[in-house]
Amino acid sequence: NAGVTQTPKFRILKIGQSMTLQCTQDMNHNYMYWYRQDPGMGLKLIYYSVGAGITDKGEVPNGYNVSRSTTEDFPLRLELAAPSQTSVYFCASSPTGTSSRIGKNIQYFGAGTRLSVL
Amino acid sequence: ILNVEQSPQSLHVQEGDSTNFTCSFPSSNFYALHWYRWETAKSPEALFVMTLNGDEKKKGRISATLNTKEGYSYLYIKGSQPEDSATYLCASINAGNMLTFGGGTRLMVKP
């Protein structure tokens, strides 16, 4: 059972380049999320999706775009990479969203993508 | 945007010591609190999900309590072992469907 799979694991970009971070899950989860982790800052939510065709901004969406054409896939796109986007990116999914009536739907994380923009 | 804070930021203990750390969160519009354990080079894994004031959860030597009225949760580790070394993250969820993480407490247990 693969769970949440992220690719690539590592990437170095030059300033101004673009790239797509891939995320796929095989648990048929409705909700998917993208976070970035900066040292000492915990995880910051970039974008999230409550289902195929629906996306919404999180706390730090600037410089990123997402799409959700299928339940399984939630790619994150960086159009013009900047040094401030150097971070570790985590994708996560949960069955029906974290504010379900009983609040028990935990997040399942991918292994992360370490991105450096130089 | 919620402001979730964890203290201390890092903690060094000897093997066998018991320890605890704190997560504080806004008590208004509270919905649920999650604790995650995050080992180096791995992804965060859920430890506990807590929703009710006074909740206590336990998993082996690790336990957590929740006070939603004053907005804090404690995580306790009894008899720390080197394999407990990790970053412990808490995250608060409000009715607006957003999960907000604290900065984490990095625990290092020396053998």
Concise description?
Chain A is mainly β.
Any overview of this molecule?
Chain A is an all-beta fold and 118 residues long. Chain A contains no helices and eleven strands. The model of chain A has no long low-confidence stretch (mean pLDDT 89). With 111 residues, chain B is an all-beta fold. In chain B, strands 2, 4, 5, 9, 10 and 11 form a six-stranded mixed sheet that branches. In chain B, strand 6 (56-59) and strand 7 (62-67) form a beta hairpin. Chain B starts with a strand and ends with a strand.
CA radius of gyration of chain A: 14 Å
Sheet with the most strands, sense and barrel status of chain B: 6 strands, mixed
pLDDT averaged residue by residue of chain A: 89
Question: What's the number of extended β-strand segments of chain B?
Answer: 11
Shape of chain B: globular
Compute the separation of the termini of chain A in Å.
Answer: 36 Å
> What string gives the helices and strands of chain A in order?
EEEEEEEEEEE
Q: How many separate helices of chain A?
A: 0
What fraction, in percent, of the residue positions of chain B are helical?
A: under 10%
Structural class of chain B: mainly beta
Strand content of chain B: over 45%
User: What is the oligomeric state here?
Assistant: heterodimer
Quickly give the structural class of chain A. mainly beta
Share of residues in strands of chain A: over 45%
Contiguous uncertain segments of 5+ residues of chain A: none
How many individual β-strands of chain A?
A: 11
> Roughly what is the average pLDDT of chain B, rounded to an integer?
91
- Biggest beta sheet attributes of chain A: 7 strands, mixed
- The H-and-E topology of chain B, N to C, reads as EEEEEEEEEEE
Give the count of helical stretches of chain B. Answer: 0
Descriptive terms for the model:
heterodimer; A: 118 residues; mainly beta; seven-stranded mixed β-sheet; four-stranded antiparallel β-sheet; 11 strands; B: 111 residues; six-stranded mixed β-sheet; five-stranded antiparallel β-sheet; 57% strand
